[in-house]
Amino acid sequence: MDLTLISQGAEGKIYTCTFLGKKSIKKERISRSYRQKSLDTKLRERRLIQESRNLVKIRKEGVPVPGLYFVDTITCSLYMEFITPSISLKNFFIQNPSIPQSLLSDFANQIGKSVALMHNVQCIHGDLTTSNMLLKPQVSLATEILNDFSPADYLVNPCMVYFIDFGLSYGSSTPEDMAVDLHVLEKAISSAHPQLEKIFIEILAAYKIHKRKADSVLTKLEQVRMRGRKRLAFG
Amino acid sequence: MAHYTLELFSPSYTVYLLYFTQVKNAKQIKENLEKFDCAFINPRLVVSVQQILFACNRALFEKFNNASKTQSLYSDVIYYMSPSSNISEAMNHYGLQESTEEVIVASFNPETLETVKTAIDGVVSNILQIAQKAQAKKMQEVFKLKDCELWIDRNLVNSVLSVLSIKDIEEND
């Protein structure tokens, strides 16, 4: 298999490859030797299955996520759609210093709606950052044009915001977990893109429209902001 | 005859496909099914060649892990084409029907397809035509795809493969 490593994290490796004749992403959960063997297998397998189920569950709600192509329970790998052309929201913000307000509002609306749709089915993403969101132009273009799509090109073509990396996702129905999910996003935006802090207000507005019982989550968010992501365990 | 590579395995496997239209002797083929070393697939609920490749890949994968669902590799191929975990329902949707006039034949052995060619009374057609012939409404129903999901892509391929990918995926104890 023609594997090309494109990214490595603590939990796994991301490759591009050809799978069933299509350019795809392979996400492999690597074995950690410091964990006891049977526990390691169990953990990798459980997280693999959790991630794949959440990916499909969320797609069913209409949230743009990569198509899942195959779950390999032996090597603990997922094969997924390679979203192309695409740019992470993080790189898009960094490489385009001035972004029209209308475009920011469009992205904020999409993000707020998608997070609401996930939460409506009790799915918490767990790692909502701008690097885990991809912009994909919605226009159909000739392959030659697609291959050299520059960061500025995303400014003039309508884009869809895809959500990726459900490796930390889990099921929960409590306003607390949803509020923490939103708080992580708020912190991610304010630390990576301080000049765009205001976008979070619009994200929340869209979230409020699409989330059932949004009020309890937003009230909780106020409390989470006061105390931070972690709940006090003692004292 | 079209052929495709299954990259997962090392060495890789090759799947050979033939698409027949205007088939006149489906009943006869169905009666002699066990004589052929291949899968006869009903194309009406096949959204693209990828769906067939997925099923072939999964059937082989399960075979190598001694986890086949049915008695033969090729009935496993039919089983993994369908979102249903009910074997007879999967066979009803994707298996060969007596009245059928179109069929896709899949095999890992190119010689089998030569035999099938002489046995089937029909016209060999381009496999890439199946995408246009898939019954989108019926597919949506069988795969339980809501309208809100369909705006993500312009076609059903990613949604169909996503649903199939998590079929029967469970933790081992």
Automatic annotation (TrEMBL), chain A:
Residues 1-235 form the Protein kinase domain. GO terms for cellular component: cytosol; EKC/KEOPS complex; nucleus. One of its GO terms (biological process) is tRNA processing. One of its GO terms (molecular function) is ATP binding. Pfam families: Kdo (PF06293). It is an enzyme of class 2 (transferase). Keywords: ATP-binding, Kinase, Nucleotide-binding, Serine/threonine-protein kinase, Transferase, tRNA processing. Transmembrane segments: none annotated. SUPFAM superfamilies: Protein kinase-like (PK-like). The keyword Oxidoreductase does not apply. Its EC number is 2.7.11.1. It catalyses: L-seryl-[protein] + ATP = O-phospho-L-seryl-[protein] + ADP + H(+); L-threonyl-[protein] + ATP = O-phospho-L-threonyl-[protein] + ADP + H(+). Belongs to the protein kinase superfamily. BUD32 family. This is non-specific serine/threonine protein kinase. The lineage of its organism: Eukaryota, Sar, Alveolata, Ciliophora, Postciliodesmatophora.
UniProtKB/TrEMBL annotation, chain B:
SUPFAM superfamilies: PF0523-like. Keywords: Nucleus, tRNA processing. Gene3D superfamilies: CGI121/TPRKB. It comes from the Eukaryota. InterPro entries: CGI121/TPRKB (IPR013926), CGI121/TPRKB_sf (IPR036504). It is found in: Nucleus. PANTHER family: CGI-121 FAMILY MEMBER, EKC_KEOPS COMPLEX SUBUNIT TPRKB. This is EKC/KEOPS complex subunit CGI121.
